[in-house]
Amino acid sequence: MSAGHLVRRFVGSLSPRTPSAADGVWAETQLLDEEVELWRRMGRADRRHVIGVARRVEAALGNDATRPVLAAALLHDIGKLESHLSTYGRVVATFSIRVAGPEAAGAWTQTRGFTRRVGLYAQHEALGAEMLELAGSDPLTVALVREHSQPEPDRTAPAHLAAALCAADDA
Predict the structure, then answer these.
(1) Confidence band (pLDDT; 50, 70, 90) for 16?
(2) Which residues touch 21 (CB under 8 Å, ≥6 apart)?
(3) How many domains does the chain have?
(4) What angle (nearest 5°) sits at the alpha carbon of residue 83, between those of residues 89 and 138?
(5) Alpha-carbon distance 4 to 151, whole Å?
(6) What is the pLDDT of residue 8?
(7) Top-confidence residue, 3 or 28
(8) 126 near 33, Cβ under 8 Å?
(9) Residue 72 pLDDT more than 90?
């Protein structure tokens, strides 16, 4: 993720604005009932972000933006809920992960307190995919959430779909 993306996400997270009612309805029509329950647990800033990502995915993919693909765009950050970090905690976590490297996250989850929460945040893709599997999401939705930020050779999801989600998330 680019530094510009991270700055825009931080600034956007400070806005008290909630997604529009129309955007909320549109988002929920893309999701299964169990996915809607997860989506509603997300904070206003995360919901605004993922709606924007989903709209960009839809524009980029056209007919390939099927319901499972849009669900992945709308839920790609759902695993971040498991960390229970505030906006400022997420900023610290992001910098910690950048400095220590993502491979440190596994060890961090074996600790307690804030360090454990940073480790969980670093693994939000895998945690989100687990949450979606338990919710009965389409396998494509699960794969895209798990793999959208992984390097291309490590992906099992169709490359053009994962690339579109990654690009839309980084825009």
Answers:
(1) low
(2) none
(3) 1
(4) 130
(5) 20
(6) 67
(7) 28
(8) no
(9) yes
Contact assessment for residue 53 and residue 165, using Cβ atoms and an 8 Å cutoff: yes
- Torsion, Cα of 70, 72, 73, 75 (10° steps): 120
Helix (H, G, I), strand (E, B) or coil at 42: coil
Of 36, 141, 149, whose CA–CA distance to 97 is shortest?
149
Which structural domain, as residue segments, surrounds residue 74? 3-170
Burial 146-155 (b: 16+ CB within 10 A, else e): bbbbeeeeeb
How far apart, in whole angstroms, are the C-alpha atoms of residue 70 and residue 90?
A: 25
Amino acid in position 21: A
Q: How far is CA 126 from the centre of its chain?
A: 10
